[in-house]
Predict the 3D structure of the following.
Amino acid sequence: VPVSPDGPDRPAYLDPGSYAVVAAACERLIPAEGEHPGATALGVADYIDGLLGAFLVDPPRIWAGGPFSGRAGGAPGFAGFLPLGRFEALAWRTRIEGSRGRPEREWNGPVTGWQEQYAAGIAALGPDFATVDGAEQDRRLDAAPEFKQLLYEHACEGAYGAPEYGGNRSGAGWAAIAFPGDVQPRGYTDAEVRERP
Amino acid sequence: VTDFEAVIVGSGPAGATAAEVLTAAGWSVLVLEKGRNHLLALEPPFAPLGEMSNDELKLTRRFFLGPDPLLEPRTFRVGDGADPEVGEVNNLPSTVGGGGFHADGKLPRFREDDFAPLSAAGPVDGAAIVDWPVDYDEMEPYYAAAERAVGVAGEAGANPFASWRADPYPMPPGPDMYVAVLTSEAASRLGYHPYRAPTGVNSVEYDGRPACNNCGFCGYYGCPIEAKGDPVAPLRHALRTGRCEIRPEAYVTDVLRDGPGTRATGVRYLDGAGEAQTVSAAHVVLAAGAFETPRLLLRSGLGNPDVVGRYLQYHFQTFVLGIFDHRLHGHRGRSVTHLMDDPIVPDAAARAAAHDAGLPFLRGGIVEHGAAGHPVLEAIQTTPPGPMHSRLMVDSPMRDRMAVFTMQGEDLPQPTNRIDLDPAVKDVFGLPAGRVTYAPHRHEIACAEHWAPRLEAVMREAGAEHSFWATSPPLPGSFGDRPGSRAPVSRHIMGTARMGDDPRTSVFDRWQRLHGMENVLCTDSSVFPTSTGYGPTLTIVALAIRASRALAGLAPLESVRPA
């Protein structure tokens, strides 16, 4: 399994074959292009792996702490994750794992979890997905539109969310788009707010 | 003997303000909050918990401030019989601090005519426009008190449409954002009247909290340094009296009443373990917001059943987007630093357009001069997957090169627009979900169609190379009018238990007490008879001060109109 240098105690939820399919699909959705490093270089698959395996660590990797990351001063509070309340844990387990027939998760009926959607989606893309050409990858992604949309939303989160969630490796996603990311507690001076860039 | 003199349902601006006023008057108060506490320690010195952060995933993608739509779904339909959509509908934060938490803190006052819209401009077919049971002159000192309590930075006299005020703002305005200078100067050249927005964000140290350092994570985020006064200031003031207790994770299910049903005796709630608890109180203050308050009234069988839940109003939002040839760094500063009120006071063109549309007037709302959102939102909502994604994200036409006007158009009250209890969908506690039935009046649509091209002209004058516009809710038949996107994204929710003097046509009286049960008060925007074209929060706070003072038997506030 490729391991992100930014991802200490990463849960490694996906098996190597599944990880390779997810990584290749994300690169197709967010490709390296000009100044943009693309999903693979940003560790987007690591982000997704961390999301699907959020409950393999405690506290679960859902809400990073605060108030500062340390990138603009202060202590690195984003590095620790906040505990979930009882009902929040129920919601996130249901969202990630699915209701799996458990009555306490089915107050409005069965819920198909992200883990189940990824398992089905990865199977639909095929075990050889990482090795087929781009046109064939596009065809297979387009044949699974709901999974493609879910994957795209997660890939965008992984590319441009805070690095503590496992993607956006070393802030390279922000650097590519000239976004400074979190800036507390330094902030911007009044002159920086007013001035023409 | 009761456990508390007042139990307050909800800890947002409405409930926090009631808690501050009532504890200052010597009352013992319990605040029950459905969500968790991420705001401040509940023991002295009530320090910040340090859980707010510049974290787009946590705050905008992962429901950190609640409610989680899986736990507490809501449903939406465009009319009786239409297919319902299930999920997130107008969700305001459900957490200690409530809706004040995520607002970027634009805090304008209403105008004199806004309290007497029927008298000022007459009726409109299909709408139930009424005058408010309070007027601006009476409200002025409460507005001033609200501005002091929250801490509002602004510039008296800058807005030519503003009504009179007795005193200057507590703080001067913060720094102008570059993008707002571009667009507001263009608006002035075209004859409009932009002004520095009154904002509940410190421009200097105020009330023991620091000046804003312009981090730009404002709308939809809590403030990591407490430069936003709402809602932390009133809650901390209340806690410091030693007479306020806040219980998070306490979901009020019913208002309890005595045998004859003429007085409330307290509330029943579910605690963090899901166990039912009861608490007794001499007074019950409803401050759960204009979505959850009518839901609680309906569950409890309280209030005029012909009115509770009806006259649901949002703001009909028109978004005008301009794409510039250079980066605008709209991520620096307070999200929005300029407003203009021109669409609220019809000019000759708006009067002519109203005539052509067969309407007595077109009344829009404040125009917020702002910038685009953060990059995860930009990526998901504005770029397609594939090579285009990477090129657009690098070039940033939909974020760093974009200016955004948001017009908060007045939404006329209609009895068919309403919140009731969904017959099928439930929350995790087994209670019926809130259901919205809503369609805009044709006034709102005509108003958007009139103003959008004029605001596009301002964008072009400011230097935008491209401009376009959209509305929320989407115009019928427009690109956005498709399943799953028809619910208004507005978080301004009003009018669902309107106040008035006639118990046959209103739920609460002019002092915001429940008709027929005088020890129940409502301090949130459920009581608004009309929506106006202004953000509701300052008026919620001002009304909450007025109603809470009256409840505690304190003298009315007074002010002197400058000659």
Chain B touches chain A through 67 residues (CB under 8 Å).
